[in-house]
Specification:
This protein is of the alpha/beta class. Helix content is 40%, strand content 18%. It folds into 2 domains: 5-134, Up-down Bundle (Four Helix Bundle (Hemerythrin (Met), subunit A)); 142-348, Translation initiation factor eif-2b, domain 2 (Rossmann fold, 3-Layer(aba) Sandwich). Helix 2 (47-62) packs antiparallel against helix 3 (69-84).
């Protein structure tokens, strides 16, 4: 598939990411409620990929809206609500829903069929723009990576977490394409193992040298001088530069600071939530404790033991060396640099 999530013959198609790398199963949806379930169950995951999927799901919902204008608006809003209730942390989901809602409002006078086409057109743009943003981010970010380096990454911020190419893995891909000699260390990323199942899979498939490590191994390897920098993605970045990302990211950033290793975050501007002053306001998803007590469905803990499962943590801005976006690289103070990038017109972006 060219894109992680795509539209084919009136259906949304995607690979079931809960089955990779052992099984490559393509899922097809013609019902937006089932797409909402797929997001909740993490068949598709990763902040930008969730946003693109929600946009396509609204295009799907638009195909069966009633003719009556007020019933139609109510049905569309219900679809927005159902999709918004799937996962709380990644702001790209809410950003994409708002983009689609804005298109709906501007074109609400169109007949139902034309409106559905207009919404599908915007969803396809969101998909394409995501890959373009990742490529630009890659070009900016690659300049930060040494000619020869071992780069640590956490979770999966790759092609599978976006419409394609990836954010953190996009930076790594761009560095490799620029001829740099890069080795990747991939944290396995308990509890859902996105590093083992997805990052190792996509880098291996691309022929980029990757070594899988247990999450607890990273700090020790830093101490031995075996890691030159860390690059991760983000689910939401507050106005002050605090970064919410997969649980365990904060530990990586702390270890990087102690060992004086740069800690970079790569994320599109749609991940930046300037409405939140700091990371304290970012809603953190709590997932089922079973994900901790079990490993891919098999119990690994005593029956009945308590477990906590926050899916994300917040890394304070002071631990972030730089934030790589599609319009350039932001550094502290982030209140100013993030806002300036957000306000830069596309034709004034410095290459
Ligand atoms: O729970 P997930 O797998 O959706 O979490 C994904 C992450 O935390 C990624 O690092 C983040 O979404 C950035 S993806 C480009």
């Amino acid at each position: 598939m060219d894109y992680t999530v795509d539209w084919r013959d009136g259906r949304i198609v995607m690979v079931d990411q809960t089955l990779l790398p052992q099984t490559y199963r393509v899922l097809e949806y013609d019902n937006y409620r089932e797409v909402a379930d797929a997001i909740r169950e993490m068949k598709v995951r990763g902040a930008p990929a969730i946003g693109v999927t929600a946009a396509f799901a609204l295009a799907l919902a638009a195909r069966s809206l009633p003719d009556d204008p007020s019933a139609r608006e109510e049905a569309f809003e219900e679809a927005c609500r159902i999709l918004a209730a799937t996962r709380p942390t990644a702001v790209n989901l809410f950003w994409a829903i708002e983009e689609m809602r804005a298109v709906y409002r501007v074109h609400r006078a169109q007949d139902a069929r034309t409106l559905a086409e207009t919404l599908l057109h915007r969803a396809k743009e969101i998909q394409r723009e995501d890959v373009e943003a990742n490529r630009r981010m890659g070009a900016f970010g690659a300049s930060l990576i040494p000619e020869e380096a071992t780069v640590l990454t956490h979770c999966n911020a790759g092609a599978l977490a976006t419409a394609g190419y990836g954010t953190a893995l996009g930076v790594i891909r761009a560095a490799v394409e620029a001829g740099k000699r890069i080795q990747v260390l991939a944290d396995e990323t308990r509890p859902r193992l996105q590093g083992a199942m997805l990052t190792a899979y996509e880098l291996q498939r691309d022929g980029i040298p990757v070594t899988l490590i247990a999450d607890g191994a990273a700090a020790g390897l830093m101490r031995q001088g075996k890691i030159q920098c860390a690059v991760v993605g983000a689910d939401r970045i507050a106005a002050n530069g605090d970064v919410a990302n997969k649980i365990g990211t904060y530990s990586v950033a702390l270890a990087c600071r102690y060992h004086r290793i740069p800690f970079y975050v790569a994320a599109p501007l749609s991940t930046i939530d300037l409405s939140l002053p700091s990371g304290e306001e970012i809603p953190i998803e709590e997932r089922d404790a079973n994900e901790v007590t079990h490993l891919r469905g098999e119990p690994v803990a005593p029956d009945g033991v308590d477990a906590l499962n926050p899916a994300f943590d917040v890394t304070p801005a002071e631990l972030v060396t730089a934030i790589i976006t599609e319009k350039g690289i932001a550094s502290a103070p982030y209140e100013e640099s993030l806002k300036a990038l957000r306000d830069t017109p596309p034709d004034q972006v410095q290459e």
